[in-house]
Amino acid sequence: MITLGEGGTPLLAAPRLSERLGVELWLKCEGANPTGSFKDRGMALAVSRAVNKGAPGVVCASTGNTAASAAAYAARAGLPAIVVLSRGSIARGKVAQVKAFGAEIREIEGSFDDAHREARRLADDEGFVNVNSINPDRIEGQSSAAREVLAQLGAVPDVVVLPFGGGGNTVAYAQGFGAELPRFVLGEAERRRDTFATAIRIEQPVHGDEVKRVLERSGGTVLSLSEKEIEQAWRALALDEGIFCEPASAAGVAAIERDAAAAGGRVVCVLTGHGLKDPDAVGSRAA
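Above: the chain's sequence. Below: its structure in token form.
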């Protein structure tokens, strides 16, 4: 097993936000993973199984966090990694991680969807294992977070709130909870193509159909959020609770802000990445 000590992240009560929003809010802080995001859970398993299969390397497309995680775990395993990025759309902290871990960066003109197609082509042509969330090992690994929430709370929460980019993490949490699902509330950016919350800058959710089925099973919903709503929630997490997350992580809290009555009860909000992933956001928006 290729591991960097992923998992076991804190589940923290959020008393000030709970009082303001009228819910019992808990924050699952996935920025405490080794490369600073939830991606490490699935990447540990995906890279481990790639090694076991004798793969010559791994490849992924990314809005940043997948690239950083793939590069780190590939380095740990002694495998080459190729990451395909949309030019100019990736937060600086994540690019720095990829470079530090020695992965090969291939920048393309176009969107994340274009990068995803290119990563699939490279996997087919060069025999590398694709470690995007289309790889079921990624979903299986990420599902461990839901089982941690169950252990930490001692019960299924009433609601789980997640940022909605590609949708893989929603599918993973549903898998981890099993037959008894909480209600899923997802926060997506209205401006998917150019939102400042770069981690969810994905025009077409890769797992869109699977997410629809999760929402149908759980009675859940998707809320489309303005840039202002995401920014205000991001600032509130820092100022009210002392938690610094990357902007995309705050989409879940913004969804509760929009419709706290719909959330209700005991709510777990997943903060998917650490704030140091995107230092430029602080300079431009938190001054």
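The mean pLDDT is 93.
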